[in-house]
Amino acid sequence: MKRIRVIVASCFLITALGTAGCGANSATGDQTSQTPVTDIKVVSEQGMELYKANCIACHGVDLEGKVGPDLRKVGERKTKSQIAGQIRDGGGKMPAYNASLSKEDIETLAGWLASLK
Ligand code: HEC
């Protein structure tokens, strides 16, 4: 009888500690189970769609460059924020896109282009 009580007590203790541990685990588990916005495949697909709709005329079907420069390895030359700035404000002979593209679209495009190295 005494032994059973000890076992019950220690089980309770383990459960109590375990719950605390589980609480922490499930918190981090939730974070990793969310789809990150920076998911590279999603960003690439959306980026390509936006590129096709807005940028092909000057930068070419395969980003090889026409009126505007070759963008195939633009991520080697420029950071994501520099690229976002170029899209937002334009510059040289490039038009500004701050009025026609949303902030999110510009971020997506810039993130995708910056990943091309
Ligand atoms: C009307 C033609 C035109 C369009 C449309 C255009 N660009 Fe450009 N783009 C240019 C030109 C010209 C430059 C070079 C600017 C300069 O001389 O400073 C440039 C430069 C850039 C650069 C910097 C490249 C580097 O190597 O420094 C990026 C990035 C860029 N464009 C992205 C885009 C994206 C993304 C779009 C679509 C949203 C777009 N461009 C649409 C003409 C265009």
From TrEMBL:
Pfam entry (one): Cytochrome_CBB3
Keyword Membrane in annotation: no
Annotated Cytochrome c domain residues: 42-117
Record keywords: Electron transport, Heme, Iron, Metal-binding, Signal, Transport
Signal peptide (residue range): 1-20
InterPro entries hit by this protein: Cyt_c-like_dom (IPR009056), Cyt_c-like_dom_sf (IPR036909), Cyt_c_BACSU-c550-type (IPR012218), Cyt_C_IC (IPR008168), Cytochrome_c550/c551-like (IPR051811)
PANTHER family the record matches: CYTOCHROME C-553-LIKE
Protein name: Cytochrome c551
Upper classification of the organism: Bacteria, Bacillati, Bacillota, Bacilli, Bacillales
